[in-house]
Amino acid sequence: MEMQQQQETRQQSNGEQYNKNINISGEGTEYGFCGICLMILSGFIILITFPVAICMCVKVVQEYERAVIFRLGRLAKGGAKGPGIFFIIPCTDEYRKVDLRTVSFDVPPQEILTKDSVTISVDAVVYYRVQDATMSIANVENADGATRLLAQTTLRNMLGTKSLSEVLTDREYISAGMQTTLDEATDPWGIKVERVEIKDVRLPVQLQRAMAAEAEAARDARAKVIAAEGEMNASRKLKEAADVMSESPNSMQLRYLQTLTAISSEKNSTIIFPLPIDMVTSLMSKK
């Protein structure tokens, strides 16, 4: 526990030192004597070649873009520029455009060993956008590539702690967990992860057959149970009907006539009339 706390403290101190080394805001930047002289010289050249240099100094960024300006290798004051028109000094300034629109990418299928030792192939889709253009340029070399690699690693780590049943049933929970983990990890890069969705879970063919056989056996067993319950309920109702009819002999005769009516409606060429039950009963009593 103490070692883990020391490691976290060391990581926090390293992050603070990293943020101190990189001045994200650009405030308090000192260019030095040579830098000031170079900027004055660049301004003098712009004045001399004014009609031509103005085309090189004026830049335009779209509504969904921001421009991060580096002046003599340092971030310029005021942060990212845009949208609209901004000015640069051709000899000393360099700028990079950053797109702020939401970007989506597919995480390639990952071979993952689940908690219950089942190998599955899972792919996902991630939606993210740049929320801080300066941090996405200054804190990471390639924000898009780093986010893609982190998404693959997070997908493997997240599903490696889940069983197969959890992966198949708790996709929304897993997606939310991946989004939270990715958002926390990419926050120093100026990246905002908006949504993560698991697209497909591919199982081995043998496992698919085994699961299909298990599901079919469960359905057959459930069907047999339902049929048995139906037979039991029918036998109970039949017994109740027999008890009611035994209490009233006339009801038995009415049932006998209804049966004859049903037989005659079927257009049979031969109809067999059974002896009335009361007649059979009287003969049995005489014997």
TrEMBL record:
<dbReference type="InterPro" id="IPR001107">
    <property type="entry name" value="Band_7"/>
</dbReference>
<feature type="domain" description="Band 7">
    <location>
        <begin position="56"/>
        <end position="215"/>
    </location>
</feature>
<dbReference type="InterPro" id="IPR001972">
    <property type="entry name" value="Stomatin_HflK_fam"/>
</dbReference>
<dbReference type="InterPro" id="IPR018080">
    <property type="entry name" value="Band_7/stomatin-like_CS"/>
</dbReference>
<comment type="similarity">
    <text>Belongs to the band 7/mec-2 family.</text>
</comment>
<dbReference type="GO" id="GO:0005886">
    <property type="term" value="C:plasma membrane"/>
</dbReference>
<protein>
    <submittedName>
        <fullName>Erythrocyte band 7 integral membrane protein</fullName>
    </submittedName>
</protein>
<feature type="transmembrane region" description="Helical">
    <location>
        <begin position="31"/>
        <end position="54"/>
    </location>
</feature>
<dbReference type="InterPro" id="IPR036013">
    <property type="entry name" value="Band_7/SPFH_dom_sf"/>
</dbReference>
<keyword id="KW-0472">Membrane</keyword>
<keyword id="KW-0812">Transmembrane</keyword>
<keyword id="KW-1133">Transmembrane helix</keyword>
<dbReference type="InterPro" id="IPR043202">
    <property type="entry name" value="Band-7_stomatin-like"/>
</dbReference>
<dbReference type="Pfam" id="PF01145">
    <property type="entry name" value="Band_7"/>
</dbReference>
